[in-house]
Amino acid sequence: MMNNESLVLRVAGRPVGRYITRPELPPKLSPRPYFHPVTTLAGTAVTEIGPADHIHHLGVGVAVPDVEGYNFWGGRTYVRDQGPTELDNHGAQRHSTFQLCDPDGFVEELRWVAAGGELLRERRTAAATELTDTAWALDFTFSLTNTTAEPLSIGSPATNGRTGAAYGGFFWRARKEAEAPEVFTAGTEGEGAVHGARADWLALAGANWTLVFAGATEQTRRDPWFVRTAEYPGVGSSLAHEERLPIPAGETVVRRVVTVVADGRLDRGGAAALVRKAVSP
């Protein structure tokens, strides 16, 4: 299942996701562990890394553009009244150890470091579960603990002045195809309606695949969704939408997102049914 640098998640014996623990990446990409490729049960890839449009997009993982001014997202930093700016402020997420490592999941400890010091300690849990013959779910939880002696906060380009750009947190860079994917929730559809909205779940439907993202805790469901379809296909859950998220010294922030990975194009009823099956009470 695992070597020194990566492991493979399996569902019913079939590989569905490779997790890279120690990627060799330049500092400006904010090196961090990630899943890629993630596939449907039929083998269709539904992630992308290092695309030309955003070379710092790395499959599925946790990426935050502003932790007390340090960039754990990669690429340029949005500076208020200045715009996207190249800064030497990139951090890195460093794999420490696996507390548990099974064919269908793991529990990992990571250190978020920048400027030679640790800002956050993360406990990350991932589990893969078969739902039907054509769908499985990735249950992804991350807990961020402030290990410094001072309070710190998480921000986004939106909290720094860029309207509509509240990305940062769990993020899934999906596969780019000739046609942009459709996006919908239980009650809305289209990028304009879904982006920045709160919804129990949202679906991203490509040519022959569908991803359904669901906040699996009350706090996670309070976070608005960050959605892109026209420019590129990507979905995230926003930690800092309208204001910065404070994390006092020694305190912990926890979020849990369950993603249904399905072959074919699901409708609203099909997406909702699979979410109910995937998200335990």
Order of strands in the sheet with most strands? 8-9-10-11-20-16-15-14
Write the element-wise H/E pattern from the N-terminal end onward: EEEEEEEEEEEEEEHEEHEEEEH
How far from one another are the termini? Answer: 30 Å
What number is the mean pLDDT?
96
Radius of gyration, CA atoms, in whole angstroms: 18 Å
Q: How much of the polypeptide forms β-strand, as a percent range?
A: over 45%
Write the layout of secondary structure elements.
Layout: E1 6-11, E2 14-20, E3 34-38, E4 60-67, E5 70-72, E6 77-79, E7 83-85, E8 92-102, E9 105-114, E10 117-132, E11 135-146, E12 152-155, E13 169-173, E14 182-184, H1 191-194, E15 201-205, E16 209-215, H2 218-222, E17 225-228, E18 234-237, E19 245-247, E20 252-263, H3 268-278
Structure description:
With 281 residues, this protein is mainly β. It has 3 helices and 20 strands. The chain has an 8-stranded antiparallel β-sheet. Strands 4, 5, 12, 13, 17, 18 and 19 form a 7-stranded antiparallel β-sheet that branches. Strands 1-2-3 form a 3-stranded antiparallel β-sheet, with no helix packed on it. Strand 4 (60-67) and strand 5 form a beta hairpin.
Please describe the structure with a list of short key phrases separated by commas or semicolons.
281 residues, mainly beta, eight-stranded antiparallel β-sheet, seven-stranded antiparallel β-sheet, 3 helices, globular
